[in-house]
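In this supplementary section we document a worked example of the pipeline. Step one takes a protein sequence of length 547 as its only input; no multiple sequence alignment statistics are reported here. Step two produces a three-dimensional model, which step three serialises into structure tokens for compact storage. The input and output of this example are shown verbatim.
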Amino acid sequence: MNKPFRPHTLAATIALLLATAPGCTLLGPDYITQNPAQLPSEWQQEDSEQSYQQTQQWWQQFDDDTLNRLVGLAHQQNLSLESAGLNIVQARAALGFSDALQYPQRQALSGNGAYGYQNKTDYTSVNLGLDMGWEIDIWGKYARGIESAEANLYANMASYDQVMITITAEVVRNYINYRTYQERVLLSQQNIKIQQRITEITQVQFDSGDVSELDVQQAKTQLYATLSTLPALEIAQIKARNALAALLAMLPEQVDALLQQGHEPLNLQQRMAATNNANIKALDDYDARSIIPSVEEMSTQIDANLLSRRPDIQIAQMQAKAQSARIGATEAELYPSFSLFGSLGVSQVVPDGGSYSLSEAVYANIGPAFNWNIFQYGRIKNQVRVQDALFQASLTHYNQTVLDAVVEVDNAVEAYQRLNQQLQYNRASVEASVRAFNISMRQYENGLVSYQRLLSTVEKMTRNEDNYAQIKGNIAGQVVQLYKALGGGWQLENGQPLLNDDTVEQMNKRTDWGDMLTQPIDRQHYDQELKQRQADREIKRGDANDA
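The serialised model returned by step three reads:
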């Protein structure tokens, strides 16, 4: 005869098993935060607030309202940045899944009803049951999984930072390229006007018999050669405009409207002292009207502590931490796993027309279970070795990332300093070539020098002015490269939404996301949460050791 079901007995048994369950022992290594290797001795170690603030919105040093507007739009609209935000949302969901594994992993409510016929007898059956199973995390398999998921979330947050830095730098770089090509186009157009005037003068002199036809053909050759360079510069300018359009997720004509705001084309006539004799003003006038972005003065003294904040270094750090946790999770497979299982339900078969008896239908089972992967022939041990090798590789990758960052910063600093020196030399060259052109132009009109002499000064002036514009653009580009190397600009995302409203609305229509889609990146909140999780693990580990 079956013993009657006693709910209090079941509850007492569950409480006893939970009370006697062994504590959690974390297998595998505990990750130790890595510090950058030795840094250049000339770098400071002050972690000053000034250097931090300077890198936060570094592009504002160009003092260009159009550029500031473009950067702001990129932060709001860039599609790659939104994709990085979606990666954070995925990582949040994955962490939530790992957290849930601390609780009973199997909880299933099932039921069925059936009509049957056998041996000329009709019968009906009813089954309704609740099955539960909980693998106790004795060896820390699930705890290590949570650590890995936490590190993965932080790695995705750092990846978001990295995308923001890259997007910001690309917007500024392409804007600088656009303005540089725009200025080179304007300079080329100015030189075309000058050479057209020279060709006209030469034609008049040829018609009067003062010069040979050779001078006329040489003037035309120089004019057409300069005209032929103009389309290539215009194509490069269009490409820079289109690159900005892609970064801002806008159409090219929409970007055109933004680029025209606050910028008037160079007044070529003002730069020319007189159209009649094509006399050129000094370089100071050219610099005053230049549209290439520039910074007044930039310090090249590097705060070494900024380097550790670079997102790619943070990514490497978090990837190593996640991989370290996987060693312990895999090592747990070497040991037996202990579980509590239980089932509660009703199950009864009665003849057709019979009545059900609840007291006879109720059943309950509860008890411990274990599972041990024995005779694995080294498979699990080799899996542990694989994870350990991957962890060591992640540490090597971290060290290499630090070294690469040092090289990038040093390259940018050295290039910025050398390009400024080059600009000074080129400036002197431009001033000399402009003066030489003005002198030779007057002398040629008076018949004192040959056309070949004038042609030489025109070529040198044209080339030197174009080089001057290119060097100015390269210096601005090195400012971009330096702040990108320092990881400047990622701080803006703190507290900002990850996704735009339209994306949030679309995703919420498909799936219940709770507040995951609207949670901003709040580093202080996540840092505090991480510290609390770590403290909780330490407490559990201490309790297990005491036991």
